[in-house]
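A brief tutorial aside. Many learners find it easier to grasp structure tokens once they have seen a single protein encoded end to end. The record that follows does exactly this for Ligand-gated channel. Read the sequence first, then the structure, and try to relate runs of similar tokens to stretches of the chain.
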Amino acid sequence: MPATISRIAATTAVKTAYRHPSLKRWLLCALLCLFTTFSAISPIRAEDNASDRETLGLYYEPHDLEIAVATRSPRPLSHSAENITVITADDIERLNAHTLAEVLNTVAGVQVDLRGAPSIGATFELAGATSRHILVLIDGVTINDQLDNIAFTGQIPVQNIERVEIVKGPASSAWGSALGGVVNVVTKEPQKGSRFGGAAYFSGGERGTRDGRGELSGTMGSLGYYLAGGNLRGDGFRPFNASERSDLYAKLRWDIPENRGTVRLTLNYQKIGVEEGLFTWRDATSRLTNRQLFSTLSLDYALSDRLTLSGTLKGSRLDYNRNESLISTGEPSAFISNDEITVGGATLLTWRQGLHTVTGGVEYDHGKSDTSVSYPAWPDYNSAFSVRNDKWGLFLNDTIVWGPFALTPAVRYDLTSATGDHFSPSIGAAYSLTDKTILRAFAAKGYSLPRLRPEFRTPEKGWSIQGGLETSEIPFLWLRGTWFRSTAEDPTDRTVREGVEVEARTVPLFNTWLTAGYVFTDATSRSTNTEIPGVARDRWDLGLHYDDRTIRGALTGHYAWWNTPGDWGGKYKNFIWDLNLGWRLYRDRTTETEIFFTGHNLFNGRQYPDETFINPSRWFEGGLRITW
């Protein structure tokens, strides 16, 4: 009788859910919970798949094989169905990079429009998905602003980055507003085994470019600390293009006794001043100043051998000001200010049992943005408005590993005060066909929040499917290929992005290796049945690398066919080649000193989609790096 009643109740629930979509979403969440709960008590345990590291170990350091960006809990990269790229601190150091935008510019599938000297605001895409569709995180804090839902990666310093995890494709089932993907910046941890360590860095180059940074790090007993600060400035490579950025970062970590977990406190402050250049078509020049402060307090605690609790409190403050002046007279023409405050938190539970790694949690964010626009010459057009957005998110995912097969179902439900509710399911599978070949498939629904301006209140939603292969079967060569098809729609248009991404890397031979990447993206508007201008149709990345632990170098080339209309004035027929060289002139057990040199745009190529933002011509810089 109880079983009969249960079947009747279940049937009734399904029929009711079918008639009411919102109940259907909650039923799917409940069914996933029941499935993972009952199947997780199975006595069968996941096999230790030793081939994971055999397949990928030649191309990533061991600690980089565990990633958390896709499901918000660590799992092997070989069990991930998503198209994920990991950039390590060593990769960043080889590039002599200044900002996150410069690092992203070397990744296949990422198209960056570098708009001038380091620290200038740069826009970027992930296989055609624009900046508004991509969530950028630092220590779990969203860097995207509320007003336009974008992040300025050209203003994020690199010295405190341990690694960057990039998901190319919807990640809304884990993070909410992330229709195009996620860029997750993981910052450095306090140095273990030493009370006092650190690094110092200085570089100088043409057009007054100077970058100075310092780090201090160590652990005393159960308390560790990491401090970093820097200043980057330059006169720019075209008129009214100077920039300056100052930043300060601090992390404290307390290790809970008996290795039960950690408590972390972070504080990150940035101040940026940028001259954006000349907008001759409207007789204007502008200067942007940003001050941003964000902080986190997080806990990771092992409740048992199988159950882990994670909690985070976070807050951020953004003070944004833009001053525009007339080129012809120098008189002020417009002033825009935006003051944003965001506070929130998240609680997660991760349960490992049998075949399963289940992660579920709830998070909340409260944000407000106060904006004013004034025109000295036309006071009647002055305006001011405020927007508020409260977001609740509930998510659940499972990674089910059975021998060479890994399945990841996931769901998330978001409720926002500004744009209503959003349901984001996904499912992915990864299969180790051999010890050296992994097949991947992934399908997901996602959304991105709109610009929270009075005239923009409708989010974009869409689906994405991907299929890929990663292999090192060919001797001395690693290959990864991904096919993708994504849609994004709002009440006015539906866009489709379809294409392929291919990456290759050789095994080091005589301390030398080659890298290559190609991405083709066909982006069309279904409302007009035409190609979308300004989306890079073809992207090439080539590299020649050398590192014998004393001398190292990298020659990298980047090319993008931006597919812009002729009246944009873009020029993009040239590869942009950069050369990075380094010599470790002194090294002992605890100290290392390196001098380095970088030649940017060696052949003075042109690569820009819009003549308003011409890329820098050939320029050089060099510097010194010391670690202890």
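Self-check: DSSP finds six helices and 34 strands in the chain. If you spotted this yourself, you are ready for the next section.
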